[in-house]
Input
Amino acid sequence: MANQITAVSQPAVGSGGTASWADTVGIITGYLAVATLGRKNALINSVGFPVNQRAAASVSATGYGVDRWLFTLGSGATSVLTPTTPTPGTTTGYIKQYLAWTRTVAGTTATTIEQRIESVSTFAGLSATVSILAWCASGTVDLTPSLVQNFGTGGAPSTAVTTTGSTITVTTTPTLYTVTISVPSISGKTLGTTSGTDYLSLVLSRPTAGNGPTTQINISAVQLEAGSAFTGWEVPSQQETLAQCQRYYVRWQGDATNIVYIAAGQATSATLALCMVPLPSPMRAMPTIGFSALADIGVLAAGGASTASSANPAVFNSPVSVGAGLSSVRITVTVAAGLVAGNAAVLHVVVGAAKFLDLTAEL
Output
């Protein structure tokens, strides 16, 4: 099936047709990773973008903004992606935010946003439909969806396969655009030897030329599902979406007036504390640890005194796991002095709204 593109009016939440035989086959093959979750949309945090754990007001360099969406700037480009709250009454109630994507300098390579989906087998050998609710500030803007099959890392995995969909031309009227892409089979391909590193990625690309390369485009919803048609927006609760996002990223954000406590543990010496950190959702893989600054992470000793970390905290696997993910991790924190071996210790983020500690298990 060739790539297909249509522009249609937006249907109500939950509307849709009867599953086809191809959809049923998809449940057994490439769609299994999504169908077993009881979801048709392979994307997370994609309808109204309600979760923004990083509290990113905007992102202007390559990296994550709202959860699960990776922004790539492109060579020589000047571009900003800003989550924006719509004016009341101008959109449907389930659109909490839209992404305002400005680009004042087009650069020499495309600017993109993408979401990586666990398992390269997702939709393999099937048709998949990308649905995008979007509009632009003026004129028209070109936007091109593509699906990238990445076979992971370690050993000698097969080279990634990119299947590019038809370019849509976005207008100033909010419109639902759909593009159907035939996803190649992965028969005969080789996965990397590092388990859990293969994925399917949806990439939305703004070319450097064509229509509106420096015009603002706004995106309020994106969906990726098996089959050749849009079947209505799937809108999980915000709590469900947060739990899904926390499989890949967890953040403890500082507060302007209070210490933010993370987990209790025990001092093993005068300078080292070990804390068992329960995770709000089992994480995809062993996470890496990050923080705003070394001095922003502290240990509260049994006597009530807070001591700042003096070396980078380390994160380790714990013996407790649930299903395919980690339910807790061990974090060790080194301080200059002040702890008593055997006494309690509490890991925390010190006072300050911009301070944080996070754990990342993104693909």
